[in-house]
Structures are given as structure tokens and as C-alpha cells.
Design a protein that fits this description.
This protein is mainly alpha-helical. It has five helices and two strands. It binds heme C (HEC). The site of heme C (HEC) has 17 residues, from helix 2, helix 3 and helix 4.
Length: about 140
């Protein structure tokens, strides 16, 4: 009795496996572009263009030219360290040196914009030293280089 039931289960399981296998294959054969299971035709079947196969050229030589990596030195003076640490958080201090000499009022606006608009975390005491530094070295009257 127990033996018969076991045999029955085995036969049913085998039949199920066969049936599901043939169904899966049957469905797969209908998939567009399928040549045989797992292999698709590389051509355009009117559905979507496939990217051209990559043709790696082992002998190719790629080169890029030099690019500027220097950061112009900030003018010496009181506040320089603060400028370097606070104003260099988000961008290079080249942002300061690449400006034309700016009037004092414009530096005030710039520093306030960095703090107010862009959220530079600069304590007011340091911001004051930074404003003074920028005015002392980067206005039309004071800028030396
Ligand atoms: C919280 C990040 C942050 C900090 C800190 C910061 N900046 Fe900026 N800064 C910016 C962003 C963002 C821009 C705009 C970048 C862009 O347009 O490419 C910018 C642009 C500038 C410019 C170019 C002119 C302009 O207004 O767009 C200058 C000059 C400048 N910053 C100076 C400073 C100075 C001086 C300090 C220190 C007091 C400072 N930044 C600190 C984020 C910051």
C-alpha cells in the first residue's frame, strides 16, 4: 500500500516535470528572435536595434593632453588660513583668484551669498575676517597679482 502510493507520487512528479518542461519550451519557441533556447538572433527583428558588437582593438593607444591642476596661491595675509579652510569646502579657492578684482561691496555680497544661499557653514567671526581679507587683497585698488 505504502509502496504503491510512493510509486504513484514518483510517476506524477515525473509527468509534471515533463509537462512543465515542454510547456516552457513551447512558450520560448514563440519568443521573437529565439533561434534555439538561450540563443537569440542578433538581427533587427523590427523591434529594437541592438548595439553593434564591441570591436575591442588591442593595439589602440589613447592619450589625453595635460590639464591644469595648479591652484593659484592666495595672497599672504591675515585670514588666509580661514579662507583656505572655509572657502575651499565646496570648491577650489581658484574661484576667488579667477575673478577680476571685485569692489569691496561685491566681496561682501559674495561671502553672504556663499553663507546665505549656498549654506557655507562659516561662523560670523570667521566670515568677518574673510571679508576683510578679500577686501585687503582682491579689490581693484588692492589686488597685486
Ligand atoms: C557651501 C558650499 C560653498 C562654500 C563653503 C563656498 N562656496 Fe563659493 N560657491 C558655491 C557655489 C555652489 C558656487 C556656484 C558654483 C557655480 O556656479 O559653478 C560658488 C561660487 C563662488 C564664486 C564664483 C562667483 C559666484 O558668485 O558664483 C566665488 C567668487 C565664490 N564662490 C567665493 C567663495 C568664497 C570667498 C567662499 C568663502 C567665504 C566660498 N565661496 C565658500 C558654494 C560654496
Amino acid at each position: 500500500m505504502t509502496g504503491n502510493r510512493c510509486l504513484g507520487i514518483v510517476i506524477l512528479a515525473a509527468a509534471g516535470a515533463l509537462a512543465s518542461g515542454s510547456t516552457a519550451l513551447g512558450q520560448a519557441m514563440k519568443a521573437p528572435g529565439l533561434v534555439q533556447e538561450g540563443n537569440y538572433d542578433p538581427g533587427n527583428l523590427g523591434m529594437q536595434m541592438q548595439p553593434a558588437p564591441q570591436n575591442a582593438d588591442a593595439g589602440a593607444v589613447y592619450a589625453v593632453g595635460p590639464w591644469p591642476t595648479y591652484m593659484p596661491r592666495l595672497a599672504d595675509g591675515e585670514g588666509r588660513d580661514l579662507v583656505q579652510s572655509f572657502c575651499g569646502i565646496c570648491h577650489s579657492t581658484t574661484y576667488i583668484t579667477m575673478q577680476p578684482p571685485l569692489p569691496s561691496a561685491t566681496w561682501d555680497v559674495e561671502v553672504n551669498k556663499m553663507i546665505g544661499t549656498f549654506g557655507a557653514p562659516i561662523p560670523e567671526a570667521s566670515a568677518q575676517v574673510i571679508r576683510t581679507y578679500l577686501k585687503r587683497h582682491y579689490t581693484p585698488e588692492t589686488r597685486k597679482e
